[in-house]
Specification:
Elements (H helix, E strand, L loop, with lengths): L2 H96 L11 H28 L2
Helix pairs in contact: 1-2
């Protein structure tokens, strides 16, 4: 009575084992298939991230170059102002020391000579200040 039932159970177990084996093999193949693409995607993601970081570093280097160029432009202008201010200072000193003997200043009234001397002195002070500030700005 139990013999046919036992044979049926044994056949069902064998079929179940084969189904599970097939499922296991297909799951392994599916995992291996996805694993290759996953590893490839991760490499691509890492390369993309590294490229983004390198480009960002180059971008900030360009910002630094821009700032460096602006600072160099300012210092070069200040050096030019320093040279021009020194030449104007020399011109004012020459006028102040030797300009009193000029033909149009000698016969002038004293208050005109005083205004002339004060304007030269104020120009001297302003140009000394300009030379001093341009010297500090060019450093």
């Amino acid at each position: 009575f139990l013999a046919p039932f036992g044979a049926w159970c044994h056949g069902a177990e064998a079929a179940m084992v084969e189904v599970l084996t097939a499922f296991g093999v297909s799951a392994k193949e599916l995992f291996a298939y996805n694993r290759d693409y996953y590893v490839f995607d991760q490499k691509q993601r890492l390369d993309r991230e590294m490229l983004r970081l390198e480009m960002q570093i180059k971008r900030f280097d360009l910002f630094r170059d821009d700032i460096r160029d602006l600072v160099q432009l300012t210092t070069s202008k200040m050096e030019m102002y320093h040279m021009v201010g020194a030449l104007c200072l020399e011109f004012i000193v020459n006028i102040y020391t030797e300009g009193a003997e000029m033909a149009w200043v000698a016969p002038a009234p004293p208050f005109i000579k005083a205004c002339y001397a004060m304007s030269l002195a104020s120009a001297f002070c302003y140009i000394i200040l300009a030379v001093w500030l341009s010297m500090h700005a060019s450093v």
